[in-house]
Amino acid sequence: MNDLLVFILCAGVMALLALYSFAKQKTWIRKILAIQIFSNSISLFLITSSNLSKPVDPLPQALVITGIVVLVSTTAFALSLAVKIEQKDEGGEKPHA
Amino acid sequence: MKAGRSPMLESLMVYLLLLPLAAALLIFLFGKEQWILPLSSLGIFGILIPLGKELYLGGELLHSIGAWGSAEGISFKLDGLSFILIALTAIVSSLIGFYALAYFKKKPNRYFWAVWFFLWASLTAMFLSNDLFNIYVTLELVTLSAVGLITFSGKKAAYEAAIRYLLFSLIASFFYLLGVAFVYSEYKVLNLDLLSLSFSLSPLSILAASFISVGLLLKAALFPFHFWLPPAHSNAPAPVSAVLSGLVVKGAIYLLFRLHFEVFDFSETALFDAIGVAAVFAILFGSTMALYQKRLKGLIAYSSVAQIGYIFLVFPLSKSSSLELVLPGALLILMSHAFSKSALFLTSGIYMHFMKNDELSSVQAVAKKPYFFFPLFLLAAYTIIGFPPSGTFVGKWIFLQNALSSGNFIYAVVILMGSFLAAGYIYKVYSLSFTVNEQYNNDDKAIGLPMIISIFVLALLGLVMGISNFWLPQFIG
C-alpha cells in the first residue's frame, strides 16, 4: 500500500509542476512539454489506482493506452502549429498584438 | 422502454455518426464536396426523422456497440436533450456548409471539408456517448477538428489563436480526465446511467466532479475562462467562426447539463451559486467588451461570451425553482443563439469580402452597395437582443419569471441589463450605416444567392425558435 502512495504523491507533484510551468513558460514548445508532463501524471495516477484492487483492474490500463494515443496526435498537431508560427515570424510578418 | 421496438431502429443511431464520417473520408479522397454535402445532409435528416418520432412515442433509445452491455462496453443513448443537440448540429452544419460552398468557390480546399465533416461526426458522437471516457475521447476529437478549421485562414493571428485554443483545451481535457480517473477509482463504473444510481457526495467524488466541471467550464468559455474565445472565434474564416460559436461551445454546455442535472448531485452545494456569479459577470463583462470592440468579428465574439452567461443562469435558478421549469428556457437560448450567432458570423464574411477587413469604422461603406448586409445583420441581431418571438426572448422570459418568483432580484436585473447592452452594441454597428462613404469593393457577384439564403434561413430559425416552447418541455421531460 505504501509504495502505491508514493506513486500517487509523485503524480500529484508532477501535475502541480506541469501546471506551474505551463503558466510560467513563455514559448509554445515549452508549454507543449508542460502539457505532456501533465498528461503523464494523470496516466501515472490511473495506473496506480488500478493496482489498488486485487486482482489488478485492467480497464484503467486500457484508458491509459487510449490517453497516450490521444496525446501523441494532439502533440504532433500542436508542434506543427508552433513550427508554422515560427516560420511566419521568420517570414518577417508583423507581430500580432 | 416500449416493448417490440426493433433493434434495427436503435442501431440507426450509429449511422448518424457514420454518415458524416464517411463523407469526410470520401471528400478527403475524391473532393466533390458540392455533391457529398447535400447527399449526407439529406441522409442525416432521413435518419433523424424516424428516430425523433420513435423518441417522442416510446422514450429514450439505447444501443450498445458490439452488444457488450452498458457496464464495460461503449453504449449510445438518444434522449430528448441529445436529440435536440444532434438535430441542431445537423441543421446548422448543413446550412453553414452551403454558405461555405459558395464562400470557398474561388479556391476550393477538400481538406477543409474533410475536417468539417469530421467535426460534425465528433459532435454527434459527443451527444450520443453515454459513458465518461467515451466523452473524453469525443472532447479531444472536437477540439482537434475545431482547431484544425481555425488554421484554414492561413494568417499568423489565426495560428496563434489556434495554438492557444488547442493548449487550453488540452489542459481542460486533462482536468476532465483526472476527474474521470477519480470517479472510476471510487465507483468502478464509467457508464452515466449506472453512475447516477450510485453517486453520492463523498469527498473524493466532490473533488472528481469539481475537476470535471472546471475542465468543461473552460471549454464552455464561461467567465473567467472566456479569454481564449474572442481571438479564436474572430480570426477564423467566417464559416468556421460560425460553427465554433454556434455548435462547438454548445458541446461543453450540453455535457455540463447532462452531468450536473442527471448524474452528479450538486444542486444543494455552493457550486451552482458560483456558476451563477460567473454567469452574471459573463453577461455584464461580455456585453460591455462588445460595446468597445473596434472589429466586427470581435464584437460578435464578445456577444457570445455574454450569451453563454445567459445559458448558465439555469444553474442557480434550478436551485430555487424546479429544473423542469428553467431547463427549457436555457435550451431555447442555446438553440436560438446557435442559429442567429452563426448567421451573424456569416454576415461578417460578406462584410469582410466587401471591405477586405472587418474594422467597424468602414461599416458605412457597406450600407450603400450590398443592400442585403444590413437587413440580414439586423434580422439575426434581433434574436440576439431578445425581441419576441425569438427563442432568446422566451428563454429570458422564463428565467425572469423564475428569478422574480424566487426572490433572486439580482439575476432579474442582470437579465434586463444584458438586453439593453446587447441593443447598445447592435446599434453601434447599425448607427454607422447613416454616414456616407463612397469607397467599397464593388465586386458583389462573388456573394452568391446560396450565401444569402443560408444566412436568411439561419436567422429566421433563430427568430421563430420561441414557438418551440409549446412542445419543448414535454420532449425533454
Sum this structure up briefly.
The complex is a heterodimer of chains A (97) and B (477). With 97 residues, chain A is an all-alpha fold.
How is the topology of this model organized?
The complex is a heterodimer of chains A (97) and B (477).
Chain A: H1 2-24, H2 28-50, H3 59-90
Helix pairs in contact in A: 1-2, 2-3
Chain B: H1 7-30, H2 33-58, E1 61-64, E2 75-78, H3 80-103, H4 110-128, H5 132-150, H6 156-187, H7 192-198, H8 203-220, H9 229-234, H10 238-263, H11 271-291, H12 296-312, H13 314-320, H14 323-355, H15 363-368, H16 373-385, H17 391-405, H18 409-431, H19 449-464, H20 472-476
Antiparallel strand pairs in B: 1-2
Helix pairs in contact in B: 1-2, 1-4, 2-3, 3-4, 3-10, 3-14, 3-19, 4-5, 5-6, 5-10, 6-8, 8-10, 10-14, 11-12, 11-13, 11-18, 12-14, 12-18, 13-14, 14-16, 14-17, 14-19, 16-18, 16-19, 17-18
